[in-house]
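BUG-203 | component: ligand-complex export | severity: low

The export step for 2-acetamido-2-deoxy-beta-D-glucopyranose jobs runs without errors, but we want the raw record kept on the ticket for reference. Input record follows.
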Amino acid sequence: MEGHGLLVGAILLLCLTHTCYGVLFSSLQHSLVVTASPQQGQLLKAGEDKIEVTWQLNMTFPAGSDSAYKSVKVKLCYAPISQKDRAWRKTNDNLSKDKTCQFTMVAEAYNDAVQTFQWTIARDIPTATYFVRAYALDSQGTQVAYGQTTDGHKTTNLFDIQGISGRHVSLDIASACFSAFSLLALCGFFLAEKRRTKLSHNK
Ligand SMILES: *[C@@H]1O[C@H](CO)[C@@H](O)[C@H](O)[C@H]1NC(C)=O
Ligand SMILES: *[C@@H]1O[C@H](CO)[C@@H](O)[C@H](O)[C@H]1NC(C)=O
């Protein structure tokens, strides 16, 4: 009977600390070191350009501090300038409500050696300013540690991505202008041709 209560208690505790309870970002261990290939202020194109990301455990952390890390999720995150006036990208310390990092670049098993991967920017990434953040997750899939390419205030090493829809709009405008120009040219040609025929008829 007692054992049963203990089990329920343990499940409840697990539930409270993991699944049911949103973890606070501010409570995570800042133990991962993450770097990404884009230079500060660089402009990359969605669907075309690649980002190379490297992450590893910060070696100044004592051995075994990563014993709970089971997997790593690397995400593309909105920089503050691209969150302004956009509630749907708002940062919340409660990670179950946080909308800073909406795009997963890679999810893989945790490994304490240096990890590197290349990611072609997905075609659905919108035009915005970004940084990269990696979360270490425990066996429950709960965030326990992180690392990011920018500083705590999210002001350094930010890069820009130009989304495909933005490019399509300018392409559409260009083709509309081209069509209008073609139509004008065609009309001009037609009129000139008509006048020429008229002239030759009058001769
Ligand atoms: C985080 O948000 C979830 C969902 O609203 C809530 O259930 C949880 O209690 C919150 N966690 C903290 C630590 O505030
Ligand atoms: C590693 O962690 C230490 C202690 O928190 C910190 O001072 C140092 O800047 C970190 N190193 C890197 C490369 O982030």
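Assignee comment: Attached the raw record above. The first strand starts at residue 32 and ends at 36.
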